[in-house]
C-alpha cells in the first residue's frame, strides 16, 4: 500500500495564512459572504474592473471570498496549483469537458463511469459533435489505436462506480503521453477522484493533469451540500473559470461555507470510513446470503495488487451482491435500521442504494453488462458509525432474506 502523505491532521489545518485578510485576526471560521454583488467604494472601482483589474469584486458568479477561500484550501490540500468550485460535481465535470473540447474533437474514456457522466457523454456531447470512445481497462494498450490527432482528452474514473474495479493510472498516463509525442499535441488527462479522494489516491503523482470531484460526497461528507471541484494548473483553471461564467454553474457561498467546515474533519472522516468499510467487507464476505463482496483491499478483489500499488487507503465504498437478485437487494435495503436507504455517498451516515434503480437507471442490459452491474447489487457508502452496530444491522437485514 502506498504510504499516506498525511500522517496527522495536517491536511485539514494546512495553512493558507497570508492569503486573505482574516488570516491572523477575527473569526476562527471563515465568514460567509452571502451576497450576489459588491458595494463599490466609488466608480473608480467600476473603472478598474472595466480595465481588467481582477482584484475588484463585482459579482458572485465571477468571484466570492468564501468560495475562493475553499478553492485555495482544496488546491493546497490536493497539491494542485489552483482549483475552481462549482454548484455540483456534474457542473464541474461538464464545464471541464467543454472547456477542453470543441466540435470535431474526440474523448477517450474508461467505460465504467458514474451514470451521470456516462449519460452526459452518451446523450449530450454528440449534439456538439464531440465523440467519446471507450477503452477496455484490461487492454489499455488499445489507447494506441483509439487516440487520434482529434483526441483532446483522456477521461478516467477509478475506483469505478459501483463495481469498484480499478484502472492502472500509471499505465494509462504512460500510453497517453506516448501518443501525445507521436501526434505532437497536448492530450489532457482528467480523473474523477470522487470515490478515492486525495487521501486514498494522489493522481497528480502519476502525471494526471486535472482532478474533478463531486464535493457533494466525501469532501462535503455530511449529506447537506451540493458541490463540485476541478483542480489543476493555474492557467487551465483560469480557462475553466472563464467558461463557468458563461455556463453559470458557480458555487453558492453558503455551500462553500459548509464545505469549508467539512474540510476540517475530512481526514478524520476518511480514516474512520476506510476502517469501517474494511471491517464491514470482511464480515459480509463470510455471510452465506452474500454471494460477492467487492472491496479493493480484500485479496479476493480482482485488482487487489493494483490497489496496493496506486492507493494509500481503500476508501469507504463496499459493493455486495446478495442472493435473490433485485428482490433480495430490495428486501435487505428495506430491512436496515442503522444504514439509510438513500442515494449518494461519502457522508457520515452509512447509505445503501441499488445501482439498477439509482446510478445505473436508463441503461440497456448490454450497457449494464459493460458496467458490470447486476440486479442483486447493493452499493454501500460506509459511514462513521460504530462498526459493531453496522455489522449487526446488516446481519439482521440479511436474516430477512
Ligand atoms: N462523480 C461521481 C463518481 C459521482 O458518484 C457523482 C454523483 O454521484 C458525480 C460525479 C456527480 O456529482 P454531483 O451529484 O455532485 O453532481
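-> sequence recovered:
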Amino acid at each position: 500500500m502506498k504510504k499516506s502523505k498525511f500522517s496527522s491532521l495536517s491536511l485539514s489545518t494546512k495553512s493558507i495564512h497570508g492569503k486573505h485578510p482574516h488570516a491572523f485576526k477575527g473569526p476562527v471560521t471563515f465568514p460567509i459572504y452571502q451576497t450576489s454583488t459588491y458595494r463599490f467604494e466609488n466608480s473608480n472601482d467600476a473603472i478598474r474592473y472595466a480595465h481588467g483589474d481582477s482584484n475588484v469584486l463585482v459579482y458572485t458568479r465571477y468571484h466570492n471570498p468564501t468560495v475562493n477561500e475553499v478553492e485555495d484550501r482544496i488546491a493546497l490540500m490536493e497539491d494542485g496549483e489552483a482549483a475552481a468550485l462549482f454548484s455540483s460535481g456534474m457542473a464541474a465535470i461538464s464545464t471541464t469537458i467543454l472547456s477542453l473540447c470543441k466540435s470535431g474533437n474526440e474523448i477517450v474514456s474508461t467505460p465504467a463511469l458514474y451514470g451521470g457522466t456516462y449519460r452526459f457523454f452518451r446523450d449530450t456531447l454528440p449534439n456538439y459533435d464531440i465523440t467519446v470512445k471507450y477503452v477496455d481497462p484490461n487492454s489499455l494498450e488499445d489507447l494506441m489505436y483509439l487516440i487520434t490527432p482529434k483526441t483532446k482528452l483522456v477521461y478516467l474514473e477509478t475506483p469505478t462506480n459501483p463495481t469498484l474495479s480499478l484502472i492502472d493510472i500509471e499505465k494509462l498516463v504512460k500510453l497517453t503521453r506516448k501518443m501525445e509525442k507521436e501526434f505532437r499535441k497536448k492530450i489532457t488527462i482528467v480523473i474523477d477522484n470522487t470515490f478515492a479522494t486525495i487521501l486514498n489516491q494522489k493522481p497528480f503523482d502519476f502525471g494526471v493533469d486535472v482532478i474533478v470531484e463531486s464535493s457533494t460526497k466525501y469532501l462535503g461528507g455530511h449529506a447537506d451540500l451540493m458541490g463540485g471541484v476541478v483542480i489543476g494548473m493555474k492557467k487551465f483553471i483560469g480557462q475553466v473559470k472563464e467558461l463557468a461564467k458563461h455556463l453559470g454553474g458557480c458555487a453558492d457561498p453558503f455551500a462553500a461555507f459548509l464545505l469549508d467546515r467539512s474540510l476540517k474533519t475530512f481526514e478524520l472522516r476518511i480514516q474512520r470510513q476506510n476502517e469501517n468499510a474494511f471491517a464491514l467487507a470482511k464480515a459480509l464476505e463470510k455471510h452465506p446470503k452474500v454471494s460477492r463482496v467487492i472491496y479493493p483491499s480484500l485479496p479476493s478483489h480482482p485488482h487487489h495488487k493494483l490497489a496496493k500499488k496506486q492507493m494509500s487507503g481503500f476508501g469507504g465504498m463496499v459493493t455486495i451482491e446478495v442472493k435473490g437478485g433485485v428482490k433480495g437487494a430490495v428486501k435487505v435495503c428495506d430491512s436496515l435500521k442503522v444504514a439509510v436507504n438513500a442515494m449518494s455517498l461519502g457522508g457520515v451516515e452509512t447509505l445503501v442504494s441499488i445501482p439498477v434503480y439509482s446510478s445505473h437507471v436508463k441503461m440497456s442490459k448490454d450497457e449494464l453488462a459493460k458496467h458490470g452491474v447486476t440486479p442483486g447489487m447493493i452499493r454501500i457508502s460506509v459511514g462513521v458509525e460504530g462498526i459493531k452496530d453496522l455489522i449487526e444491522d446488516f446481519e439482521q437485514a440479511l436474516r430477512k432474506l
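The CA atoms of residues 375 and 384 lie 27 Å apart.
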